[in-house]
Design a protein that fits this description.
Blueprint lengths: L1 H22 L33 H27 L2 E2 L3 H20 L4 E2 L6 E2 L2 H9 L3 H6 L4 H9 L3 E2 L2 H7 L6 H13 L5 H30 L20 H16 L12 H53 L3 H18 L3 H6 L3 H16 L10 H7 L4 E5 L4 E3 L7 E7 L1 E8 L2 E9 L3 E2 L1 H6 L6 E4 L3 E7 H10 L1 H16 L2 E5 L5 E5 L10 H12 L3 H8 L15 E6 L6 E6 L18 E2 L6 E5 L12 E4 L4 H11 L8 E2 L17 E4 L1
Parallel strand pairs: 16-17, 18-21
Antiparallel strand pairs: 1-4, 2-3, 5-12, 6-11, 7-10, 7-12, 8-9, 8-11, 13-14, 15-16, 18-19, 20-21
Amino acid sequence: MSFSYAKNCLQRFCVDEFQMNTETNNGFFSNDLLPSLGARINYATKLRKFIISPFNPRYRCWEMFLVVLVIYSAWISPFEFAFLSYKEDDALCIIDHIVNCFFAIDIFLTFFVAYLHRESYLLVDEPKKIAIRYLSSWFIFDVCSTVPFQSLILLFTDHKESGGVGFKLLSMLRLWRLRRVSALFARLEKDIRFNYFWTRCTKLISVTLFAVHCAGCFNYMIADRYPDAKKTWIGAVNPDFKKESVGDRYITSLYWSIVTMTTTGYGDLHAENSREMLFDIFYMLFNLGLTSYIIGNMTNLVVHWTSRTRNFRDTVKAAQEFAKRNQLPPRVQDQVLSHICLKFRTEALKQDETLNGLPKAIRTSIAHHLFFPIVQNVRLFQGVSPNLLFQLVPEMEAEYFPPKQDVILQNEAPTDLYIIVSGAVELIAQIEGLEQIIGKAVAGDLFGEIGVLCGRPQPFSVRTTEISQILRLNRTALMNILRANPEDERIVMNNLLLGFGGFGYVDHQTNGGPDIKRHHDTALTSIDINNLEARVKKQEGDDVQEVNESMNDLSLNLENKREQNEQKVELIGPDDKGTKSCQLNPEVPCCSKSCSTISSGSKVTKSTNKRVTIHMQKKESLHHQFGKLIILPDSLEVLFRVAGQRFGGYNFKRAVNAEDAEIDDIDVIRDGDHLFFL
């Protein structure tokens, strides 16, 4: 009957396995890798017919059901061994037979359960290998713990009752099933769906209760089998203890076991004969190891919780001693302590540890999901290609800053560019020896771009006004990515100049502070760095010529290529008398080449006429051709006429560039292009 039931169970498992394999086809990991411990991945694996995956959810439920039966067996086996006599028609005997049947079914199913290879982490589904592995490992022990020896002996000896010690020792073989509980706890400790602390505590409590239960049962069995009942640990207190109910005797045994384990020893229950003394000796030695095991595990769990707090207090104490020893200003001391406190709070999130332990592709996906929507709305990166943003986002690092903490200082070397994710900062400049707030930036704004992109010291300090999360981008990484994307590089530099020429300016009044004006209803605050630096230079006693040269730094070092119409960017001088302006093309690359110097008090217009090289016809290489350098006219008709005149009166109708692309519009020709006339 049990084998037919097992066959039906096997068929049901296989059908469920096939359905699961055909219905699910995606997951975080490949099916042939080491399975995750509680992660929500697809365990679907195409196995042979009638082979069950060990990760099948229904097979997991079957294992959990067997664990419940193991717990029952672990309690009833010592209890029967000490307090009960085995009777074939007893209800407890019938329950034991039912439990044994379930474990017999599991033995049969194990021959059809795939196993994970230790070296390759592949599921082995070959029936022959599964059978050999099981027969050479746990098969004999599982059979011995499942066979009803007492029933077989009673059947062949024709006895109705068995109370001998030898018969009862056979029932103790069922404790072998406890290996399932041990394997369960080992898996739960690594399962991310369960709290590690409470899993460990449950395991320690279970081990302790099982030890108390077994010791109490074994010690009572010694007293029950001793010839003189009055010379036993329980008979010395209650000579008629055998007449007491089973529950009272069991509670008394547990009381003795707990008192002995905790080394309390009230003296009311103690060993009376050599057998009990010998058992007590071994039990107390066992308790020494068990107590050490429990105390060690609990200490590790508690220390793990308190170690961070202890390290935090030590760090704060060291910082206070450092500030006192070096006589740091109170403002700097507050910033140091605020940074340490915020770091303690953010370290609990373990964001850096989590990201650093992941592969680069996963880190990139996470960074793209978290920061890409923020970066693409930053004014400096407006209009750039998605590829550039995709390359920039993984290079950014998120940092937290407490209120009133300096992020960058005025005149420090440019090393990083910053983007505000949340919070707000103030832009502060030292003017005439006093700190003056010249602007404010909020979520979505950036700062530090002037020093990073133009290689100049930071023109102002930046200080947080509230807890802020800020993205930091290293200058080296930014410049390398921009050089690899020249088209986006020009757009970024153009956006940088537009930020000063179009977003706003600071109008300094004669007797007032800076007045920040906004243009085009933009939410970004643009600061006139020229006026700011001019006033700083004036404070330091520099002459007017040095101030004018510093005003022109943003318009210097520009490439000669121009692709769009001219755009005028006005740089406001240090005083109200003279201004400087420069005609700049919106398509401006990084500050790598020079442009003309702008003299003080005058307006100079940079010519936007494009120079092109024309050729008679296209050949394989341009190095062996002598073209003619001309100024690009305003229309194609004029261009064809000029080319015909330069090459001896030809009547050209078509023109192509170096990439064999036909030119049909004069505006698509770039400065420096080579044109070939046909």
